[in-house]
Design brief:
This protein is 24% helix and 35% strand. The protein is of the alpha+beta class and 149 residues long. It has one domain.
């Protein structure tokens, strides 16, 4: 009996182990401050969005304020001189759910190559910039969500 329980537990654990290696599609909502190198990024994930094409369709619907799966802040939520840009990417990590009004106290170095997101945590925004943050196709961004790698 114990053996069959162990075998069943092992079989149930296999999909979970592979789930982290599978690319999932995210939408990034990045707010940039004109005239600065500072950006803030929100990460959105929904299992119903399975391809970059699905994500781009959702962004197009969102531009008409008809979001089905994602719920980013509206452009009215930002100050003058700030602009929001949406980008669809694939990643193996998992973002925590976005909660409005959570402070942007996390920093990540981001790089996007052919819609593939590479994300690395940084201690501070200043350290990220001093380590070549906005060079070679990578850039630093503040975030309010933890990302599980």
């Amino acid at each position: 009996m114990k053996f069959s329980i162990c075998v069943m537990a092992a079989l149930l654990a296999v999909p979970a182990a592979y789930a982290g290696n599978k690319n999932s599609v995210w939408m990034l909502a990045t707010v940039s401050n004109q005239g600065t190198t500072h950006t803030r990024t929100l990460f959105f994930y929904d299992p119903a969005i399975r391809s970059i094409s699905d994500c781009k369709d959702e962004v197009m619907r969102g531009r008409l304020n008809q979001w089905r799966y994602y719920n980013p802040p509206s452009d009215r939520s930002f100050s003058a001189g700030e602009a929001m840009n949406f980008r669809c990417v694939e990643a193996t990590a998992t973002p925590a759910k976005w909660i409005r009004n959570t402070p942007f106290n996390l920093t990540y170095r981001m790089r996007i190559d052919n819609n593939a997101l590479t994300l690395a945590p940084e201690n501070t925004y200043a350290e990220c910039l001093s380590d070549g943050g906005n060079d070679n196709g990578s850039y630093c961004t503040s975030a309010s969500q933890r990302v599980s790698f």
